[in-house]
Specification:
With 43 residues, the protein is mostly helical. The protein contains 3 helices and no strands. It has one domain.
Length: 43
């Protein structure tokens, strides 16, 4: 994210939840297979 100048809010469209994005970024939640695929396509 840093290399691309992205913020957590930029990932809400990919993951669909601000809370889930925050939990993933802060290491409180793991990424599901569907989220990994969506993030892979986004990046």
């Amino acid at each position: 994210m840093d290399a691309r100048g992205l913020k957590q809010s930029d990932l809400v469209e990919v993951i669909s939840s601000k809370r889930v994005v925050s939990e993933i970024v802060n290491g409180k939640r793991s990424i599901s297979k569907a989220q990994a695929k969506a993030l892979g396509e986004f990046f």
